[in-house]
């Protein structure tokens, strides 16, 4: 593989060449901010596709994987830059978008894992998990006097619990063992609902297959008490900051440590105008760009 620094420069140049004229047209249009942002995101994805197809042809698995990580970072840079040009970011939108882009960067390690026997799988439906539990309970209750009541109560229980969405950021097998990853940019003051969901999803996966490894990988090193609730549940393995990247490398064979050290530099890769804008908020939004 060519030097990651040179590859980054080449890819960002290609993105700018494709996106500059298109975004200028979008800026000049009479569309709403939302429609302009949607159009920018579509152009970024369209520009990314042929670059990805080219890099997927790299023969050496670890080089191919590294190149896809570089591409994911470059796409993040131009996505932030050009979306901001048509609809300037405010605090919540910026933090949410950076979280999405960081997740995509991490997930690129699974697109072509260099570690053998790592394969993405389809997550189970909660209805499968419920049907399995229901079947076991009714099998054990067969012939008992209260069988009919137990059957009815199981139905009532499902109504109370509701449908649990088991879709997660990465669901895969490592040497046949199921693993689930949830990426989080950070845990802030409003994470109560997300914490409850993660605990419910974790229990559902363990009911599906008790040997499932559950991993919560968090970009920030410093988080609040909601993350500690998850850690203390002992359902999810929690890894933050450098430890999260180390776990990605262990699971996929990637070298995110080396890639990050060489290429991630938002301060150099984003325009001075963009940086001035995000530093002008009451909170310095550049903290979200510490990857």
Structure description:
It contains 12 helices and 5 strands. With 291 residues, the protein is an alpha/beta fold. It folds into 3 domains: 152 residues, no CATH class; 93 residues, type ii restriction endonuclease, domain 2 (3-Layer(aba) Sandwich), CATH 3.40.1560; 36 residues, no CATH class. It has a 5-stranded mixed beta sheet with strand order 1-2-3-4-5, with helices on both faces. Helix 8 links the parallel strand 4 and strand 5. Helix 7 runs parallel beside helix 8. The longest helix has 26 residues. The protein is globular and about 75 Å long. The mean pLDDT is 93.
Secondary-structure element pattern, one letter each: HHHHEHHEEHEHEHHHH
Q: Please tell me what the overall shape is.
A: globular
Q: For the largest sheet, list the strands in their spatial order.
A: 1-2-3-4-5
Low-confidence stretches: none
Please count the beta strands (DSSP E, at least 2 residues each): 5
Oligomer status = single chain
Q: Average the pLDDT over all residues and give the rounded result.
A: 93
Helix content: 55-70%
Structural class: alpha/beta
Rg measurement, Å: 22 Å
Distance between the termini: 23 Å
Individual helix count: 12
Could you give a quick summary of the protein structure above?
By secondary structure, the protein is of the alpha/beta class. The protein has 12 helices and 5 strands. 32% of the residues are buried.
Features:
291 residues; alpha/beta; type ii restriction endonuclease, domain 2; five-stranded mixed beta sheet
Which helices and strands, and how do they pair?
Elements: H1 4-28, H2 33-55, H3 61-86, H4 91-111, E1 118-120, H5 126-141, H6 147-161, E2 170-174, E3 177-184, H7 192-208, E4 213-218, H8 225-233, E5 237-240, H9 242-252, H10 256-263, H11 266-269, H12 272-279
